[in-house]
Design brief:
One of its GO terms (cellular component) is membrane. InterPro entries: VKOR (IPR012932), VKOR_Actinobacteria (IPR041714), VKOR_sf (IPR038354). The protein has 232 residues and is mainly alpha-helical. It has one domain. The protein is built from eight helices and two strands. Strands 1-2 form a two-stranded antiparallel ribbon. A hairpin with a 2-residue loop joins strand 1 and strand 2. It is globular and about 55 Å long.
Length: 232
């Protein structure tokens, strides 16, 4: 009886996911939970790996003060310069400061877990899906603040930090897609119509692909306009 109940529950969760997509008018593999959450899982895994690397570099600097990190290329592409700035440790309690990368490990672990839950097509409460999207937005805003500080205040680029920024961007793109196409948010859900018509059209006609591509191009262009002469 226990196994039968588990199987019925799994089938019900999958059916709910399929019904939400159908109600949104977003059908096909690109709008399903498998694709959207798979992209999110890959991006979140990359971000998690980069957070581990940045944490390891922080420990390396603590153990060997004065030594340069391996990813230092020149005066602009310098992980050491970025890591030694106050922006790399903005959380402080008295005399104690905590590297941003430590919080990155915690946050990205959550997003990896959410992506796995989505891939498993487990139905989650609407408040949980909404809070997850807001958490993704907060992570993106934080990553872009650090990116702006690195570009225009510190005047140095950390390759690992850039990788984290780009992976967080793709993570948010996939999470937003899944929130609308799979979770049917934002919307009341009472009438079964899911997300607003404008958002459904945005994803159904593929406008998101053009916006996402332009988004990445703009980020790359900002880097090249500021430091292209040094990078090449």
């Amino acid at each position: 009886m226990g196994r039968s109940t588990d199987a019925d529950t799994a089938m019900t969760d999958t059916a709910r996911s399929d019904e939400t997509g159908a109600a949104n008018g977003l059908t096909g593999w690109r709008h399903g939970s498998t694709w959207t959450y798979l992209v999110m899982l890959i991006a979140s895994t990359v971000a998690l790996f980069v957070s581990f690397v940045l944490s390891a570099e922080t420990l390396q600097m603590a153990r060997h003060p004065g030594e340069k990190l391996a990813c230092d290329v020149n005066g602009v592409v310098s992980c050491t310069t970025v890591a030694q700035s106050w922006q790399s440790e903005i959380i402080r309690f008295g005399d104690l400061s905590f590297p941003n990368a430590f919080f990155g490990i915690a946050a990205e672990s959550v997003f990896v877990t959410v992506a796995v839950i989505g891939l498993a097509k487990v139905a989650v409460p609407r408040w949980f899906a909404a809070c997850t999207w807001l958490g993704g937005l907060a992570a993106l805003a934080y990553a872009y603040w650090l990116f702006s500080q690195s570009m225009y205040v510190i005047h140095a680029l950390c390759p690992w930090c850039l990788a984290l920024m780009f992976s967080t961007t793709v993570q948010f793109m996939a999470l937003s897609h899944a929130t609308v196409a799979v979770q049917g948010l934002p919307g009341s859900g009472a009438a079964g119509d899911g997300a607003p018509a404008g958002l459904r059209k945005y994803y159904r006609l593929g406008f998101d692909l053009m916006v996402d591509a332009l988004w990445i191009v703009v980020l790359v262009a900002l880097i090249l306009l500021q430091y292209g002469a040094v990078l090449f």
